[in-house]
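Narrative of accomplishments. A recurring question from our advisory board has been how the design workflow behaves on a single, concrete structure rather than in aggregate. To address it, we present the structure tokens for one chain from the evaluation set, followed by the sequence designed for it. No filtering or post-editing was applied between the two.
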């Protein structure tokens, strides 16, 4: 009988009784927050986890306390340098990895949120360039390491529900930059990438899915002062009160192990046929929201534009044009 999980499930719950020895995973953003917990959870069940991090020195400090725990389970952690805001770094890292062994799953977890306006090393708007284009090039370049039964998980956000992408202005060259609008568009791009990647790879038995981890107090919120003590809690209360006043569900925050659970579930535990090409949250596949339906920050569901296959194809083509590279 298949176990069912929910918003309160943790990485411990979704991996209970699962032996991952002999399996190899790659997790981007492994040096903080959800990435660290995802790495720990997989490796503590015997997996070899390649953690891609922007700062190797920081990454080594973060994983050092985990090594004894994971070694007891037969697992291991390896770190590689990856700066998603630089396509030179992305390509260099991917090219080194492509010479290695096959991967059970890739979890594209790294990202930035609501940062001030800026550009990547290649001139792309920072959030779109880092959250989408960096992963787009990186995952495509290591796709040869995936095999029948492999999975790709792209971490998105419920924030995607507040804005579709603008294919004619992906870099905010003609419209006013608003940090959370940019973040929402990048997270919509993450879902669309998973949809098209799944379509392209499922013939090889490889499935891709997008996930929303939930509202979690992690370093991701540093650009909006949520890293200051007490500010995360204040923000949660403000949003929850607004939701309730509008007759919508309150926003209930998660712990880090609860936040990482959906990524791990989608990569290991879930039925591949059910999650392939879909958007998931709280360890289940989300419903597509009817047009005009509002859920509030604490609700569930995915906007139809984020899982539109034709829109996914169009973003893929535009992304190839921007990075100057085509992927089969």
């Amino acid at each position: 009988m298949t176990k069912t999980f929910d918003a309160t499930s943790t990485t411990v719950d979704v991996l209970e009784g699962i032996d991952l020895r002999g399996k190899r995973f790659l997790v981007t953003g492994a040096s903080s927050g959800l990435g660290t917990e995802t790495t720990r959870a997989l490796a503590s069940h015997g997996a070899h986890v390649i953690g891609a991090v922007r700062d190797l020195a920081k990454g080594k400090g973060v994983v050092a306390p985990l090594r004894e725990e994971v070694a007891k389970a037969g697992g291991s952690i390896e770190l590689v340098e990856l700066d998603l805001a630089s396509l030179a770094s992305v390509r260099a890292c991917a090219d080194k990895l492509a010479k290695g062994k096959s991967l059970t799953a890739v979890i594209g977890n790294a990202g930035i949120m609501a940062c001030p306006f800026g550009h990547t090393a290649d001139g792309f708007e920072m959030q779109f360039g880092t959250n989408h284009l960096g992963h787009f090039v990186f995952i495509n370049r290591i796709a040869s390491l995936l095999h029948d039964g492999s999975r790709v998980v792209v971490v998105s956000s419920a924030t995607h529900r507040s804005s579709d992408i603008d294919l004619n202005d992906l870099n905010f060259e003609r419209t006013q930059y608003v940090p959370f609008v940019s973040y929402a568009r990048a997270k919509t791009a993450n879902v669309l990438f998973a949809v098209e990647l799944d379509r392209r790879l499922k013939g090889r038995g490889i499935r891709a899915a997008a996930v929303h981890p939930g509202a979690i107090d992690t370093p991701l919120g540093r650009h909006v002062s949520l890293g200051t003590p007490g500010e995360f809690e204040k923000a949660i209360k403000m949003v929850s009160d607004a939701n309730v006043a509008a007759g919508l569900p309150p926003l209930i925050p998660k712990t880090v192990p609860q936040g990482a659970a959906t990524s791990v579930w989608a990569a290991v535990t879930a039925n591949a046929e059910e999650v392939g090409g879909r958007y998931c949250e709280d360890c289940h596949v989300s419903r597509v929201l009817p047009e005009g339906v509002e859920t509030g920050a604490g609700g569930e569901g995915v906007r139809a534009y984020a899982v539109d296959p034709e829109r996914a194809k169009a973003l893929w083509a535009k992304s190839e044009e921007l990075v100057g590279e085509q992927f089969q």
